[in-house]
Amino acid sequence: MVELLKGKAVVVDATVGAGGHAAALLGAGVGSVLGIDRDESAVGEAARRLAPFGARFRAVAGRFSQLADVVRRVGVEEVGGVLFDLGLSSMQVDRPERGFSYRISGPLDMRMGQGERSAFDVVNRYSESELARVIFEYGEERHARRIARAILRARQRAPLQDTRELGAVVAGSVPRRRGGAHPARRTFQAIRIEVNQELEELAASLPQAAGLLEAGGRLVVISYHSLEDRIVKRFVATSPGLTALTKKPIRPSSSEVASNPRGRSARLRAAERPGRVEREEAA
User: Fold this and answer.
1) Which string of DSSP letters, residue by residue, matches 104-154?
2) Could you report the per-residue pLDDT of 119-161, keeping only the tens digit for each?
3) Are 271 and 242 a contacting pair, CB within 8 Å?
């Protein structure tokens, strides 16, 4: 990732989180980084962590669908690169009060920012058919109907409010392969995507990111499941102003997985705006 963007004058880190990627980019010689995140607590954390870089780093709050407006609001018109790392940050997963993990007891929240619906709303207020659709489409879970029925039975006794409680309901409704992933993994992914409208936000942001690129600017996206990767692949393939730099997604090496197991499903795609081309209007 750093190699694809090093040497650029300005890079937008559209998923700044705690600032890990931004710090690596600045350390590799990128002129300045604008960090954006819909999670205001992440913006504050990144600003504190990267304060030693001074004016070379700025952090602002904003959603993917607001990308072009957020960038131009701070006085930037063109950038040398835009980076998206679509995975959950450790500061989200590891904090029980955020409600992202089925392994830690916490409230059914899963919101990446403020003002959106919560996981509690999806789990306790969606109909059985709506729940089944979300779990099947966004979790690619073949037991979606069975899981939705189990959630409805459980919430008839009392509203589901705890992440481990929901995880247990899901686990008790489907067969579990010995040694396999936790049976609630796909359901939690699906609910999180629905809560934050992640796929719609991503699809809205990619044309805006491409529209911000200067000649020679690069778009780099790290995704973690096929739904995201499919959107990125289709966008690059159908965008006349971009040239793919990766024919196939780049996967992490075994050593990278060993040092960061959470990144084992990562897929990196990159594209470039070549030459001096007529700029497109951001969607």
Assistant:
1) S--BS---SSSSS--HHHHHHHS-HHHHHHHHHHHH--TTHHHHHHHHHHH
2) 999 999 999 999 999 999 999 999 999 999 999 999 999 999 9
3) yes
Q: Which CATH superfamily is domain 2-91+198-272 in?
A: Vaccinia Virus protein VP39 (3.40.50.150)
pLDDT tens string 194-229: 999 999 999 999 999 999 999 999 999 999 999 999
Written as six digits, the tokens of 134 are: 């979300």
Give the separation between CA 222 and CA 7, rounded to whole angstroms.
Answer: 20
Which residues are within 8 A (CB) of 100 and not within 5 positions of it... i.e. 6 or more apart?
88, 92, 93, 106, 109, 110, 163, 188, 192
pLDDT at 275 over 60: yes
Helix (H, G, I), strand (E, B) or coil at 57: strand
Tokens of 224: 């973690």
Q: How far is CA 119 from CA 27, 41, 105, 116, 189, in A?
A: 38, 19, 14, 10, 11
Provide the pLDDT for residue 179: 67
User: DSSP letters of 165-179?
Assistant: HHHHHHHTTS---TT
- Whether domain 117-196 has CATH 1.10.150.170: the reply is yes
